[in-house]
Amino acid sequence: MKKPLIGMLATLLVAGATALTGALPAQAAAPTAQASTVQAPAVADHQAAAPLAAVNFAGTVALSNCSGSLVRMPGSAATDPALILSNGHCLESGMPGPGQVVVNQPSSRTFTLLSSSGSRLGTLRASKVVYGAMTDTDVSIYQLNTTYSAIQSRYGIAPLTISASHPVQGTSIKVVSGYWKKIYSCSIDGFAYRLHEADWTFKDSVRYTSGCDIIGGTSGSPVVDASTGQVVAVNNTINESGESCTLDNPCEVDQNGTVTVHQGIGYAQETYGIPACFAAGNKLDLTRSGCALPRP
User: Fold this and answer.
1) Block means of pLDDT (10 residues each) for the chain, length 296 residues?
2) Environment class of residue 21 by beta-carbon count within 10 Å: exposed (0-12), middle (13-18) or buried (19+)?
3) Per the confidence metrics, is the pTM higher than 0.70?
4) Which of 159, 161, 271, 272 is surrounded by the fewest CB atoms within 10 Å?
5) Measuring CA to CA, how many Å separate 210 from each of 24, 132, 239?
6) Judging by DSSP bridges, how do beta strands 67-72 and 160-161 pair with one another?
């Protein structure tokens, strides 16, 4: 949720890390892809994604100003309309305010689909924003105008599966940025009871170890469990300069109200609760049992 939404790319390159890390100006061009030879497996209808031999760019996308991923719920069918996961602060309409929730709004946003090596395969187009918020979490979910099976048939790319299990401390993870075609490797250091940044508050956020020194443009990147290949969180912010609870400088607040600052440490928002909010056919239903996403 940082100035990159309205700032200049040059500012990001000079500043390095940017909190609510991702938004780069829409006109900024993504860099050239890096090479990789690992191929992603196919996903069978109604089955969870098979574990990856290695995490790569297959299933990731580049937005005009952020990163994202082609995702499925554990129960999604191959014939369901496909979904894209990114951050709420990456929405083309701007950052939602505290308490603001966007549901089922028309969108024709485009996404660049990447191969396992990070090369451009083609363009995917949204039909609507299914969900977007920066309250408790920082997430946007787009529905595409095509299905998983159609994408698989045309491009040979399967979606990443969103895990329905809470992430575990110590897990090795990969933050895969489709915008920068870069993969960050680290572990889950722990969880922030509350993460405050300016006017926004996120709950039960994933804290990275220092290896994931994310920068502007990585917002919305899937955080992938390195052993299962499933998405456990969505990358969103970093404490840039050591300030406390300010824009670009999130702080942690525990159950007792104690504030802690970790300069240079990045965070992600858990995604395990998202599948409970989707019924058959990838239909959002915020009234479903177990769904805890904020409602409008």
Assistant:
1) 38 40 46 35 38 80 98 98 98 97 98 98 98 98 98 98 98 98 98 98 98 97 97 98 97 98 98 98 98 97
2) buried
3) yes
4) 272
5) 23, 28, 12
6) parallel
